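This section describes the prediction task in plain terms. A model, or a person checking by hand, is given the sequence of a single protein chain and must write out its three-dimensional structure as a string of tokens. No templates, partner chains or ligands are provided. The sample shown here is typical of the held-out split.
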Amino acid sequence: MNLIKYTQQENFLNLIDIYKAHKNILYQEIYQLNSYDQILNKHGAYLVWNTKQKLENLLYIGCAGKIKSKNSITKQTIKQRIKEGHSPRRFSIKNNFFGLHPLADYNVEKKYKNKVDKIDKEKIKDQIEIYKYKYNLSQIFIEIFYFEDVFKSFSPKFVERTLLDTFYRDSLSLPLGNSQ
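The expected answer:
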């Protein structure tokens, strides 16, 4: 199946079901993230929800394992990606949050301005709304699609892209943590 066929699915949740059933994907059901040990050291795509599978509650769609060449893939796995974070979206199990401002008692306005300045420097075009949010890990759920073989069928980046495209088609916006 090619990109057009994947994005022509009836809706976003149908597309998730297709990926869940794919023979090259090991699916890890939605669960509450309490430890990095719950995440396998594999490449794939992941979704971050603030409640179980309601389209308007999807916070972020990400992936780890971009193909660099015919026989080469980036070394970062999903476990490493979530552990190290991805500026400006990141997880911190130690500080118990997913979001942008890690300390609740920190001056949000000052922190918000610093993040916006950093984005301008890096030319990242994130939805500014994400800078107002911080979710305790007890409030979020993660769903993961691990790849058995990244070079078979399609890549994690392909899955991420088709999920984002289909999500956008269904809701006319992207998840809060994804770039515009």
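For orientation: The chain has one domain: 3-171.
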